[in-house]
Structures are given as C-alpha cells and as structure tokens.
Design goal:
The complex is a heterodimer. Chain A is an alpha+beta fold. Chain A has three helices and three strands; from the N terminus they run αββααβ. Chain B is of the alpha/beta class. Chain B has helices at 3-13, 30-41, 55-65, 83-92, 94-103; strands spanning 16-20, 46-50, 72-75, 78-81, 111-113. A five-stranded mixed sheet of chain B has the order 4-3-1-2-5, with helices on both faces. Chain B is globular and about 40 Å long. The chains are: A alpha+beta, B alpha/beta.
Amino acid sequence: MATDTVRALLEEAFPGAEVNVLDRTGGGDHFHVTVSSDAFDGLSLVEQHRLVNRALAAPLADGTIHELRITTKKGSR
Amino acid sequence: MTLRDQIKQVIDDEPVAIFMKGTPERPACGNSLRALQALWQAGAPITAVDILPDPQIRQELSALTDWPTIPQVFVKGELLGGADITEELFASGDLGRKLDDALGAEREQVVKTVAVATTTA
C-alpha cells in the first residue's frame, strides 16, 4: 500500500488536517501516521486513536496494513 | 465460559491487563514489548494474555473493544490504548499518575501470564 493511499484515506476522514505518513520499513505495510486535526479537540487519546483506526479500518482489517503507529495532535495547520 | 467471557473477565478483574503477542518473558512483537516496558517502568502490576495461541482470541478481543491492533492495555477494566498511547502516557508522566489514582501509589509490582482458551461448546 502506497503512503499516498494511506494519506488520502486520512485526509478524507480528517478534512483540513495535517497528515504525515511514514512507511517504516519500505514494504508498504508498516506505517507511522501523524495526524494534526481540530477533530481531536476535547477527545481522550483513546478516542483520538479510535478515529484514526476507523479511517484505516479496511486496510487494517484485511491485513494490508500489518502495523500501524499513531501520533495524534490537536489543532490543524 | 465462552472465550469472550474469559477475555472480559481478565479485563474486568485484573488491575492492569495487556493482551500481547508472546509473553512478558518472550515478547513476540516490538509493539507488545514497547507497551510492556512502559508499564513496567511506570510501576504497573502486569497481567499478560498471549493472543498468539489461537487466532480467535484476537478476533473476540477486537470485537469486544472495537480496537483493531495488538497490544491492548487495560487499567481497571478501561482501555488505556495500544503501544503508542501507553508509551506517550508514560513519557508525559500521566501513566504513573493514572496508576496511582486507580491502584494507589503503594502497589505491588507482580508480573503474571494467564491463558484464555477456546471452549468447544
């Protein structure tokens, strides 16, 4: 899976967010995503990560994404 | 007891539970190890469940928690998060404070592994 595809899914789920996607191994299945969005305002870390997991639910469920690291930040760019 | 009930019982009954790949003695995944180390350094008692022996454990766990990845860490029955959140909360000091609030500052740090098993019924 290309980093651009992951980024597109996240940008769709978090309009206006700053999204960074790192392919940790170059294999297209270990990603570290960083999302800065005001959608996280007022949410706990668990709730913030739930939103990110939900945006990537399909590739997580079918194993396309084998490992996902998540960093969330409040406030968009 | 169904597999899901066994999982629920561990989550509800153990002060700090981690569902991980491998065991604390032999972690089988870097993320499980990261979460374990953060818990250990924060002084948490740890009850570990290895999800690898049976794929159904992970299926039932994720269905129960609506959380897709492993590890999953629980404090007093509540989902704390995965490896990233556990590390982040340890680094900020929030994990230690949370454990103090939930379990008291004078806590015994015991690490144990419990097994859940699929029943044929």
